[in-house]
Amino acid sequence: MVAVMAREADRTVISNRRARHDFEILETYECGLILVGCEVKSLREGKANLQEAYARVDDGEMWLHGMHVLPYPMARDNPDPIRKRKLLLHRREIEELTRQTTEAGLTLVPLKLYFRDGIAKVELGLAKGKKRWDKRQAIATRDAQRETDRALKSARRNSQG
Question: What is the DSSP letter of 146?
């Protein structure tokens, strides 16, 4: 019963579905996110956007740029909606990500934002950009799989009845 309640508390607030279409995700990392109180309330209501967001290392610290959080209407003073926000990672993880983004030319893309045990977390993806033909190939593969599944489902229905 306790495990079920904990799972309900872990809910995705915002997901960046476009990231999986535009990028090939090689690895994912879970990061903490430093926020102001009124930002947390806006996030709990799902009033944010990750579409243009990316992460970058500046002076040995990981920062999330371009995430738009709508101002909370009941707050007295709201911070800048597009300000950069600090991400919390272990030093070794930051050094590894710095190395991979500079040497291999990879990008850090936020995939989703969620709350775990009441704490805001961001799932970062170490990504490689897809070319236009890669995107078309992925769509064609997905469509072919969908057609195959439909045909199998239809065949099973016909054989049962």
Answer: H
